[in-house]
Design brief:
four-stranded parallel beta sheet; 8 strands; single chain; Rossmann fold; about 45% helix; Glutathione S-transferase Yfyf (Class Pi), Chain A, domain 2; 22 helices; alpha/beta; about 425 residues
Length: about 425
Amino acid sequence: MNPPSFTTDLCLKCNICTAACPVAAVTDLFPGPKSIGPQAERFRHPRLPMPDVSVDWCSGCGTCSRVCPHGVAVAEINILAKGRLAKERHVPVRDRIISRPEILGRIASPLATFVNASIRLRSTRWLLEKTVGISRHAPLPSFTRTPLRKLFPDRCFDTPFDVEHDIDHTVAFFHGCSNNYYEPELGGLTIAILERLGFEVVIPPQMCCGLPLQSNGLFDAARRHAQANITWLAPFAKQGIPIVGTSTSCTLMLKHDYRTILGIQGEDVEMVAGSTYDFFEFLTFFMKDEIKRIEFNSLRAHALYHPPCKLRNHGIGVPALQILRRIPELQLHLSESECCGAGGTYGMKLDKFPVAYQVGQKLFSQIHQLKLDFVICDSETCRWWIAKHTDLPVYHPLEIMARAMDIQYNLHPESKGERQ
């Protein structure tokens, strides 16, 4: 992945980024990434207040940076401006709450049955909307009673030197908050697939990647998370152990945002970035020949695959398609939308929800027009968002791969939260 340029002089004001921006297309509150990015950056002075507040409507999808013909870091410029704006205006309580999924998971897991039942009540959703501004219509994930790390304590290692197996066939799993506290069954399938393919899976110490904090302007806290993860993961990277994740947002933070947005420098962050892979990127890069030899079972189904924005930002294409297209009888439709609208925590906010919903309308319409059995998407927040607005099951592509390989992983019934 080539680093984008922060030199605003490279911007020719061609407005390709604005034409591609999914937010600018649905609301006049956001004048477009060019206007509030490279153009506005020239008028921002570090000792003066931010001259524009419309940057707050940027969802951070990254489309603008991807389409810029001159490689200007439009999205990164906007995210940094959002961080400065948040610091000047002070971050509201709502944003401080939703930006800490790991803490929420740690608190709620022991009471998962009660919490999951409570957040499905209309009265609870109404109260959350009125008191802290979380939209009653936004999807909220369910918590698990038993986090992934407690399900696999024998795979948790503090250092690579504790690993007793062949280091050349070892993978370090960056599970993120989602696999640990919300979808541990997905983490279980990840481990099962990698082990079926001949890898020993170890789980390093880790914490939230920091993206929700960064997205909500809490840059200092995001840097603390980043530094902790770098400290824990660097020894594995230095031993040549690949770091593999199933959340495209988490792996993009490790690869890109720690350096480009949070400004962390040094050998360790470079080693971690260069050793991090999306799950399907890892399979198609390291195991290309082995994957070709797998005899997938037939899966008679109609599905739509939506590659999320964060996956597109990796610059690796859509590697999951190489595997999904090999599954017999799986009729696959491709998303015609650039973005589903979720934007991580963006769509949870009362003021942002209508915009996020309008951004997703094109995708929702395509899904409704097709007679689908399910939808496939790599990002957890996108899956929850799409499921909420289409009433269809939405799976990670590795779940479909596991089904075609006859790999199952079922949590103990009392440990599994209900997915909304």
